[in-house]
Design brief:
The complex is a heterotrimer of chains A (301), B (316) and C (300). With 316 residues, chain B is mainly α. Chain B is 72% helix and 1% strand. Chain B is globular and about 75 Å long. Chain C has 2 domains: 41 residues; 234 residues, MetI-like fold (Orthogonal Bundle). The chains are: A alpha/beta (301), B mainly alpha (316), C mainly alpha (300).
Chain lengths: 301, 316, 300
């Protein structure tokens, strides 16, 4: 683990600066947290979650989730497997609708509007809130058509070539693919495919980008590039990311929510809950809850 | 429609309300159109049942159901007093010809399946299995021709058998070849579903391939093989053209395969071409026989599905 | 093999592999091989028989002449061939939209548990097992006579055959649609596409190779069928080409039936030639299906 982290940093440094890798001390979360600047200015919450719970076929998967998500920040959801992080993030853009047995309770307020109100159109929700999945899932079409798909089905006006180029630029992919826009997306490497999926989500001009373990299927170099991309994107978008990689959460996120699984004694279900939600730095250096501490220091999970 | 919000910095509050847009009505309409298409299958079954029942009920008004089911004289197209609607010979002939067919299709079909599943190398399998598929793609009229102009004159008479130009043996044998690929394919699937660990265990004990195939794999796949046989029987019972062309126009309540025989499906086809009034019992007989045939294949199909479910359950 | 008991057991087993067993094994293997060869031998005999009987009668004239009851030298299959081609086209126009729509409904819209879906699925399974002659009765009662009352015309034949092979199209299309991974659907929906947009622009294009192969196979089956056409009263002898979809017709299997029903060996030879034409058509169609499958099949 230790070698990997330092290799990662070495490779990224070499990539970016073309110079000598930084000298690093024994890699710790401290190293990842170093150099982060506190957020300036007033923070507006774009999401306010209140008592959100999801159950599949009557079995609760996650419950009592309530915290705000701030604009132009990266919010990380961390915790061991099976505590409902992916389930929760899929509530933010109504993707749980696709699962027939899923039932969502509570309020998911987006700019004050509960997304689960009867009058809300999930299709409109998903235009504004994009999603990137764990395994890159480009369409079996050309790079151009992948990016253009969203704008086309949504009837976006404008010059499609421009839209595609903008999206690819914002996704830090333009230079690599500008000469082969008409080739099939499946010909790209895993890391490129994932950046394509990010660019594809950007093409519909969302406000929020949800990322469900976006790097877990990728190699360290691609992971680094996507993390850099995330830091760039947060200037214009709000990002929520589920990750198993604590170092990643420490590197990129502003706020972190730690999930764990609790045994509900009466019903004998193991249900996910948010135990702690705070500034990332605090969660990793001085967590309030002992379960959080156990997880981030590597004792469990 | 909705206020656009471009990228996020404090943009206008997005309007997410569902509206009765052309798009959403369109989506609902599409769903109904697709459902309507899906209902055609139900309509087809209903249509089959109605078309059969209506005339069959009328038929039993003219000819008593007892006379039909238990009568042993089947001469529906004869005029006058020799006209009789006892279906027993027709059903007997159907089962008899099917029986001959199964005598061919079952051993050779199951044998083929065992060879393909237990003995053949993947490459051999890849070459041979498609040939079986080709066989099942040959139109039945071609089989009928083969039975009439080759099997009867050349083979049977060549073997010295005294058969008529139209005979049950010829029709039955070729019927067997028609059904063989079906049995072979389904049985092969069933054998293939047996987990390799069973074979390995047996081989590990020193059993020969024959012993493994017969004593271990085959019994394990038995319900699937039975499903294959029942499926084959169902197909054979309903086959029209081979019997029509090579079996002849008469029903004979006899065990002599050299005689001409006609099965239910061939009768239906032959009678519907004959010049008969739609008001008489001859017309209704077509439907009564159709109903009988339909019920028989329905039952066989249900049995086959039961067996398929059994063998699937064991290994999934 | 580490215990003494196991060693002695294995010795017994090895001893059992005596020549007696080996001979039986070999005989068994040969018997199985013989079973397999039955199918192939018959197929070969069939082809040789038909070719030897009918090849001499094949000619361009044969394809462009109408059948003759009088003269076996001048008889031809033009009307039957045209009829078959028309049947194939009309049948395709029916089974493709209905079959694919049914498959889409069952895979993408229907609630799997609902009674309606189960009913539709059971129906399709049963319909696939109904003898073709019963479809002829259905066609006779409802399409040729009865409510549609079209008479024994092209459209009636095409619809009857279409209903016969519809289950095949539905089953194959469902498999092709199911093969499209759900990650594609999720990606599309997450971008804000509606369900139908996702199906039309992502799922169906992805399923297209499989569906096409299935349709070609279904059509191959349809144009080889004799019984349903006999029952609905289509002609086995026609000295005219159909003018339109409401015109009477004949088709290749029917013409073959007519030829071989004649005791005259010359006419029967014409039947063999007609069989060759039909088989050639089927070979082309199936080869096309295989080619398309190999070229365009998507490995997800």
């Amino acid at each position: 683990m230790a070698e990997r982290v330092s290799e990662e940093r070495a490779e990224r440094a070499t990539e970016r600066e073309g110079g000598m890798p930084e000298v690093v001390d024994a890699p710790t979360i401290q190293t990842d947290l170093k150099g982060r600047k506190p957020e300036a200015g007033p923070r507006e919450a774009i999401y306010e979650l209140d008592g959100v719970g999801v159950s599949y076929g009557g079995v609760p998967a996650v419950r009592e989730v309530g915290f705000p998500i701030y604009e132009n920040e990266i919010t990380a959801l961390i915790g061991p497997s099976g505590c409902g992080k992916s389930t929760l993030i899929r509530c933010l853009n109504r993707m749980n609708d696709l699962i027939p047995t899923a039932a969502v309770t509570g309020k998911v307020a987006y700019h004050g509007q509960n997304l689960y109100d009867d009058e809300i159109d999930p299709v409109q929700v998903r235009k504004r809130i994009g999603m990137v999945f764990q395994k890159p899932n480009p369409f079996p079409k050309s790079i151009y058509d992948n990016i253009a798909f969203g704008p086309r089905v949504l009837g976006m006006k404008g010059d499609m070539d421009e839209i595609v180029e903008n999206a690819l630029r914002r996704g830090a992919l333009w230079d690599e693919v500008k000469d082969r826009l008409n080739t099939n997306a499946f010909g790209m490497s895993g890391g490129q495919q994932q950046r394509l999926c990010i660019a594809r989500a950007l093409a519909t001009e969302p406000d929020v980008i949800l990322m469900d373990e976006p790097c877990s299927a990728l190699d360290p170099i691609s992971t680094g590039r996507i993390e850099d991309l995330m830091l760039e994107l947060k200037e214009d978008y709000s990002i929520v990311i589920v990750t198993h990689n604590m170092q990643q959460a420490a590197r990129v996120s502003n706020m972190t929510a730690f999930f764990t699984v609790e045994l509900d004694v009466e019903e004998k279900h193991r249900t996910g809950r948010v135990v702690e939600y705070d500034d990332t730095e605090k969660v990793f250096t001085n967590p309030s809850d002992e379960r959080t501490e156990a997880y981030v220091t590597g004792k469990v999970g | 429609m909705e206020a656009t919000s471009a990228g996020a910095m404090g943009g206008p509050r997005p309007d997410l309300y569902r509206k009765r847009t052309r798009r959403s009505t369109g989506e609902a309409a599409i769903r109904y159109a697709l459902l309507a298409a899906a209902l055609i299958s139900i309509l087809t079954t209903t249509g089959i049942v109605i078309s059969l029942l209506e005339e069959t009920v009328k038929f039993f008004g003219d000819v008593g159901i007892g006379d039909y089911l238990f009568g042993t004289k089947w001469t529906p197209l004869s005029g006058g007093r020799s006209q009789s609607f006892g279906v027993v010979p027709l059903v007997f002939d159907t089962l008899y010809v099917t029986g001959i067919g199964l005598l061919v299709a079952v051993p050779f079909g199951v044998g083929s399946a065992i060879y393909l599943s237990e003995y053949a190398s993947p490459r051999v399998r890849k070459t041979l299995k498609p040939i079986l598929e080709v066989l099942s793609g040959v139109p039945t009229i071609v089989f009928g021709y083969f039975a009439l102009t080759f099997v009867t004159p050349t083979i049977l008479k060549g073997l010295g058998l005294e058969v008529g130009s139209f005979n049950a043996l010829s029709a039955g044998l070729v019927l067997g070849v028609l059904v063989l690929p079906t049995i072979a394919t389904v049985a092969d699937d069933a054998l293939g579903a047996v987990p390799g660990s069973l074979r390995e265990g047996a081989f590990g004990l020193g059993a020969s391939r024959m012993q493994v195939s017969l004593r271990v794999v085959f019994p394990a796949a038995l319900s699937g093989v039975v499903a294959a046989l029942v499926l084959g029987a169902s197909r054979a019972i309903g086959e029209t053209v081979i019997i029509l062309v090579a079996g002849g126009q008469t029903t004979n309540l006899t065990l002599d395969p050299a005689q001409a025989m006609q099965n239910m499906a061939a009768f239906i086809a032959a009678a519907s071409r004959a010049d008969i009034p739609t008001s008489g019992p001859e017309y209704g007989a077509i439907f009564a026989v159709g109903t009988t045939l339909f019920l028989m294949t329905l039952v066989l199909n249900a049995i086959s599905i039961r067996f398929v479910r059994k063998y699937r359950q064991v290994y999934e | 093999m580490n215990t003494v008991a196991e060693a002695s057991l294995s010795r017994k087993v090895v001893e059992r592999a005596s020549t007696g067993q080996r001979t039986r094994d070999l005989m068994f293997r040969l018997a199985l091989l013989a079973s397999l060869s039955v199918g192939f031998v018959v197929l070969a005999a069939l082809v040789i028989d038909v070719v030897s009987d009918g090849a001499s009668k094949l000619s361009l004239d044969f394809l462009t002449s109408f059948p003759s009851r009088i003269s076996p030298e001048n008889t031809g299959v033009e009307s039957a061939l045209i009829g078959t081609v028309y049947l194939m086209i009309l049948c395709a126009l029916f089974i493709v939209p209905v079959g694919v729509a049914t498959a889409v409904y069952l895979e993408e819209y229907a609630n799997r548990e609902s009674r309606l879906s189960r009913l539709i699925e059971v129906n399709i399974q049963n319909l696939a097992a109904v003898p073709s002659v019963v479809y002829g009765i259905l066609g006779l009662a409802f399409i040729v006579r009865g409510p549609l009352g079209l008479g024994p015309v092209l459209l009636a034949g095409a619809l009857t055959l279409g209903l016969l092979v519809l289950p095949v199209v539905i089953i194959v299309s469902r498999e092709a649609i199911r093969a499209v991974p759900s990650s594609i659907r999720e990606g599309s929906l997450a971008l804000g596409a509606t369900q139908w947009q996702t199906i039309w622009k992502q799922v169906l294009p992805g399923a297209l190779p499989g569906v096409t192969t299935g349709v070609i196979l279904a059509l191959s089956r349809a144009i080889g069928e004799t019984a349903p056409l006999l029952v609905i009263g289509a002609a086995t002898f026609a000295r005219f080409n159909p003018d339109g979809i409401t015109d009477r017709f004949t088709a290749m299997p029917l013409a073959i039936f007519e030829f071989i029903s004649d005791a005259d060996t010359d006419f029967r030879a014409a039947g063999a030639a007609a069989i060759l034409v039909l088989l050639a058509l089927l070979v082309v169609m199936n080869a096309g299906a295989i080619f398309l499958r190999n070229r365009y099949e998507r490995k997800w």
